[in-house]
Amino acid sequence: MFESRRRSLLQALNSKYIYGRVPLLHTLVFLLEMAAVSLLVQKFNIAYARRPLLTTMITNAILGGVADTTAQTLTSFRRRQALRHASQMEVFDLDRKSPIDTPLDQSTRDLPPPFDFERMTRFMSFGFLWAVIQYQWYGFLSRSFPITKGGAATMSALKRVAFDQFIAAPVGLALFFTFMTVAEGGGRRAVGRKFQDVFLPALKANYILWPAIQIVNFRLMPLQFQIPLVSSIGIAWTAYLSLTNAADEE
User: Fold this and answer.
1) Which residue has the higher pLDDT, 25 or 249?
2) What are the residues whose beta carbons fall under 8 Å from the beta carbon of 222, sequence distance 6 or more?
3) Which residue from 60, 61, 66, 103 has the least number of CB within 10 angstroms?
4) Contacts by 194-202 with C-beta closer than 8 Å and gap 24+?
5) Beta strands in the chain (DSSP E)
6) What is the pLDDT of residues 140-150, one digit of tens each?
7) Which of 100, 141, 159 is nearest to 227 (CA)?
8) What is the mean pLDDT of residues 25-42?
9) Distance separating alpha carbons of residues 164 and 80, to the nearest angstrom
């Protein structure tokens, strides 16, 4: 009984748009996530002082959810526009072929892909678990290449960036695609196909975006804000990974 009502509610929400363009359910999920982000920002310093690792894990999970919600919203918007264009073209073709009106089932044609809560949960779970490795890794970089006053600070930051990009970046991407594929029910072959199709393009994109950001991050940001900064800027990056991961499944 509860499950049928839940499905009916989700189906009704998935069929609604804001101004005919933005899916309502996606927007509601995004607003809830932003409310969680706002609360987290207010409590971050106190929470980090008490439980730094757990605070980092929760921060990563929430921002991972925001990123995937953003990606799903973009996908839904683009598909709706494509479906509406296809429907208009089909009506135009039918009008040319026959004077008899042929009704189209717009209720099914123009619906966006339903919001995938399981996919969002996978992204939040990966962010939550990856934060454990990130926390230890950033601590290692901080101890190994301390930032001191003077010209040596920039060199230490560059060393951190080099280690981060040539070790943590490929490892993180490998773990991400493996985790997502396995969580989606894929086996060894599916993981292999994922690496063959999207790993190298994603790694190249990583090297275009992250080195400059990490230089600023390591050089100027205190340790407790380095992972949150990466996760915040990483909303766009994680959205890109979400779209890349989803596109490979289609």
Assistant:
1) 25
2) none
3) 103
4) 194/245, 194/248, 197/248, 198/244, 198/245, 198/248, 199/173, 199/174, 201/244, 202/173, 202/177, 202/240, 202/241, 202/244
5) 17-18, 22-23
6) 999 999 987 76
7) 141
8) 92
9) 39
